[in-house]
Amino acid sequence: MDKVINYIDDYNNGNNKEDEEETLSEVEEAIKNGTVYENNTTIYDKYKNPVKVPQGFKLAQDSGTDVTKGIVIEDAEAGDEVSKGNQYVWIPIGDVKTNTEGAITTINFGRYEFETNTSGVMKQSADNYAEVVEIDVGQEYNYVELTSEAGNTIAKNLGDFITKARASGGYYIGRYEAGKVEGNTNTFNIKKGQEVYNKITQPSAANLARSLYNNNNDNFESDLINSYGLDTAIVFIQMFSGDTDYSKQTRIQDALTITGNAHDEENNYDVRCNIYDLAGNVTEFNTETYTDSSVPCVRRGGSHLNSNGYTTFRNRGNTSDNGTSVGFRTILYL
Q1: Which of 10, 72, 104, 278 has a CA positioned 20 to 30 A from the CA of residue 138?
Q2: What is the pTM of this model?
């Protein structure tokens, strides 16, 4: 009799299992069921935020359940056996709903300067990506995104990235720094617990990043991360992780470690909104250009070798730089 009474009480209070299943969002259903999408598909979280999932991907089992927590996708059958299991995090742009009542936070898509303001000051909106706008961080030379004649590799197609990200409502960045595949220097993976793919030049990193899914160009694109992709991701993190000063987070530790494992002395890991190791481990090449042509390559973030480095720190070098403290991170867009 007690069991019957408890069941009736649960039902009247809306706690029966059928009701629970009916109220799951599409994102939660996808995580629960391990759905592998046969086409590029837009699904919605519990706040009605869109997430566009690429063909051949599924949501990771440890993905956030809504956009503000970091939606993680995982390669299930999009690439080859090496890329299976690669993970990326959705970076929303524009209006993001943050509760069931429809409260909105807006993420402005663009390039930012964080040196004078940890929240970031937009220096170039994605709307005017075709203009050459210099970001000055108090040095003799400045940083641009669109163009270079100095031998470093610029974005594969910046306009295409901007247009597609806007149309999709977001884009993806690698959840982890690029990792090495044992015995194969011609590819990489984006998984936890891998040896970081360092000792690589910026042009080589860009070539690997954009060739990862060569056979899937009709469904999505991959590239080395650009300054729009990185800076907007930092803004997203600071809005929703609770760490409003993450842009100035100094290096996490003073020793190189495997992907997803950078941590401080108190074992606090460098992870915000499901994105790992932006503040430490290795600095990461991107497609920005330093306007001194002798050292045009740009890398961002802190590293285990630089006690003065921080998440949005800009450093530069030449096209042959390939040190132990330099790696790379990718974007994916559709």
Answers
A1: 278
A2: 0.92
Indicate the residue type of 116. Answer: T
**Cβ-based neighbours of 3, under 8 Å, separated by 6 or more:** none
Q: What is the pLDDT of residues 78-93, one digit of tens each?
A: 988 889 999 999 999 9
Amino acid in position 32: K
HSE-up (13 A, CA, CB side) for residue 186: 1
Using DSSP's 3-state secondary structure scheme, residue 135 falls into strand
Please give the C-alpha separations between residue 56 and each of 64, 99, 250, in angstroms, as whole numbers.
19, 30, 37
CA 311 to mean position of chain CA atoms: 13
Q: Which domain holds residue 60?
A: 2-333
Secondary structure of residue 13 in the 3-state scheme:
coil
Q: How far is CA 10 from the centre of its chain?
A: 41
What burial letters (b/e) apply to 269-306, b meaning 16+ CB within 10 Å?
Answer: ebbbbbbbbbbbbbbbbbbbbbbeeebbbbbbbbbbbb
Nearest alpha carbon to residue 145 among 35, 254, 298:
298
- Specify the amino acid at residue 172: Y
Domain count for the chain = 1
